[in-house]
Design a protein that fits this description.
The chain has 108 residues and is of the alpha+beta class. It has a single domain, classed as Aspartate Aminotransferase, domain 1 (Alpha-Beta Complex), CATH 3.90.1150.30. It contains four helices and six strands, in the order αββββαββαα. Strands 1-2-3-4-6-5 form a six-stranded antiparallel β-sheet. Strand 1 and strand 2 (29-34) form a beta hairpin.
Length: 108
């Protein structure tokens, strides 16, 4: 997954004070893990958030959100969010939302 260095820096700053976060190179870009579980990532022009299947419909109602589909089949529980919309809404808001699901998973 190609990434935008500027968006990666924005995400790093938003995550720097959150406990349990690690950064990992994945899919040709960067993802961030919460207690070893994938939380979010960046691509060119958009962010990726893991919200879980139960919160997916609610997440998709938010501005700029769309299903993650890179193979012709949507990846349930993971969404894209347009970078401008995510920044306007506040990355912390999206991180808190995704953290509801990822924070409930057992640590790896």
């Amino acid at each position: 997954m190609p990434h935008d260095p500027h968006l990666a820096d924005l995400m790093r700053r938003a995550l720097e004070k959150r406990p349990g976060i690690t950064e990992k190179k994945m899919f040709g870009g960067f993802c961030w893990m919460l207690n070893g579980n994938m939380l979010c990532g960046v691509e060119v022009g958009r962010f990726m958030f893991r919200v879980g299947k139960e919160l997916e419909a609610e997440a998709l109602e938010r501005r700029g959100a769309s299903p993650m589909d890179i193979t012709g089949r949507p990846m349930r529980g993971i969404i894209w969010v347009d970078a401008d919309e995510a920044v306007d809404a506040g990355l912390d808001s999206w991180l808190d939302f995704a953290g509801q699901f990822v924070g409930s998973l057992p640590a790896k």
